Amino acid sequence: MSKWLEEHLPKVVLAPSFIAVLVFVYGFIIWTAWVSLTRSKLLPKYDIEGFIQYDRLFAAPRWDVAMNNLFIFGTLFIAISMVLGLMLAILLDQNIRTEGAIRTIYLYPMALSMIVTGTAWKWILNPGLGLEATVQGWGFETFTFNWLVDPDKAIYTIVLAAIWQSSGFVMALFLAGLRSVDTEIIRAAQVDGIPTWRVYTAIIIPSMAPIFLSAFIVLAHLAIKSFDLVIALTGGGPGFATDLPATYMYAMAFSRGDIGQAASSAMIMMGVVFTIVVPYLYSELRAKND
Amino acid sequence: MKTKVLSAVSAVAILSATFASAEPSAEVLHYWTSGGEAKSVAVLQKEFADNGGTWTDMPVAGGGGDAAMTALRARVLSGNAPTAVQLKGPAIQEWYEEGVLADISDVAEAENWAKVLPASIADHMKCEGNWCAAPVNVHRVDWIWANADVLKANDIEMPTTWDEFNAAAEKLQAAGVIPLAHGGQAWQDATVFEAVALGILGPDGFRKAFVELDEATLTSDEMKAVFDQMRKMRGYVDENFPGRDWNLATAMVMNGEAAFQIMGDWAKGEFLAAGKAPGEDFLCASTPGDGFLYNVDSFAMFDVDGDDKKAGQQLLAKLIVGKNFQKVFNLNKGSIPARTDVALDEFDQCADLSAKDMQASSDSGALLPSYAHGMALRGAQAGAITDVVTSHFNSDMSSEDAVQQLLTAVQNSM
After folding, report:
1. Domains of chain B, residue spans
2. ω before B59 within 30° of 0 (cis)?
3. pTM of the model
4. Per the CATH hierarchy, to which homologous superfamily does domain A63-289 belong?
5. Which of A238, A233, A60 is nearest to B396 (CA)?
6. Would you tell me which of B133, B155, B293, B340 could form a disulfide with B125, CB atoms 3.0–4.6 Å apart?
7. DSSP letter at A94?
8. Predicted-assembly ipTM surpassing the 0.85 threshold
9. Are A256 and B76 within 8 A, CB to CB?
10. Taking CB atoms and an 8 Å cutoff, what residues of chain B touch A149?
């Protein structure tokens, strides 16, 4: 008996969470895929009607806007957060005196929920209340910063707030990476008289490739599932200029009673996530098998 | 005659039988959770208790009813629907088609609802000829509110045509006043849009476009004129409007920062709460043009098991349409009673005007459901129209493109 337990205990312990994941993640993915092929409106229906919901989705201008926004937001958010995070990390790595305090300050935005970040930035960026009004109050009458109310620029305010929130976290990731580089190699380089910037570009940063990959994966999935920040900062407006796929899906499922349409947009979102994650998993698994 | 007596007797018999056998109880799902609204529900709750009923309150706040609908979906799917649910417009029929609504024709006939409710409002309460919901109030949507002092200072009368409105707005703009207080949220854009559309298309055109979704009307030159006027309205709004809540826009009218607001009569509650008097501090009028756009709150009755719940449902329906509740509730809420035989002595002049216009437009066939507030169309269609309206309002889209997109959006939403 005890031998059986010893052999099977790990499996028994893992079974509940395995079953939960199987049902609540993969089960519901299949369920959503099924519903996305039906004409479900208020309540889910199960008669398959083909790809009608996908036709409707791709014909909707609002979905176009949402996908474009995802592209703009995702690219800028990931690129700028990584560059900024790396720079902060390198600057912090120079053995400065108050590193602990500064690190905490930069990491702090991560402790806020996106709703708080969004609301605070909504006030900061509101032309009548925040930055623009303040600077104009100082006497610079011609100063304008009205991105929040400009349908063409509003998406960049979301990028701004998201970077503010996440770059500290990326900094922490990179800082850990910098610290894990073998100091012997760096010392050897210094002895050889190689300038510091070359030590970074030629030795340290290339050796941190795995950290870049994890930072990218973390930021990419944050970008794709972004929802609360948009709701708090712009509410998807002006008009629907800052809609993202997640807010589109929410509007269809919960405001409009159009569950089929919501399910089809969810499937496309999942497709986007897969195109990013699958190559990553593939490379990881292959590395282990070799 | 004989059958009428019989049915009346049987209705009474059913009522008394259910009352006798079980204590009426009702679980009521609603989203009236803010100050004035919560007070209004408490009135119903008290009346229900006074008549021997047990009320289980199920308020779900958030998202303008979205959260409540999500809760309802979960309850219905698990086969345990609440007794009564705050639902309105075509959503009632949508739920009926899912096969989950009850028939309350007994009460409706015993209480003579068909006589006391305006015909077009009564139609919303029926599912394939049987009564399945009870109306609570009538909000008028096509109101224009104004700051009396600002109008006086600039020598402007309440506009009765859209040209007059445009002239007034340009005068105000020259005087440094924001002509139109507006909040850039999709539903507010849609509210202004439907008021403009009613004025320009007229009641018949409005019905064709937003009730029957007639494609010729949706792409007509009149519809282009509606979008042209919307483009002008965009120019009368201040720069900071995106995302603003409607009550903040109302406050702008109150403190004289802006002159007009186009909003349903819930805006009146804001004025009254701030101690402003109708006719003196603020003015109310219907937006330019004929017709009356209504937004009727109602309770749909769901199919429930158990005599106590069925009795509760009957009692609830009877009380909701009862004269006393209709009066007290609407005094609190700022709307007017759905039944037309309630004395309006205690109501203010805006409500009087609303009631008078409702009667007149009901007689002339111009009593119309509001599309922006989910009374005219189902969610998917109304949402598709709103997408076009708000995207036109917030960009430099031409009116020709707008009507074309309107047509495609409506076709795509079917």
Report:
1. 2-138+297-345, 140-294+354-412
2. no
3. 0.84
4. MetI-like (1.10.3720.10)
5. A238
6. B133
7. T
8. no
9. no
10. 184, 239-242
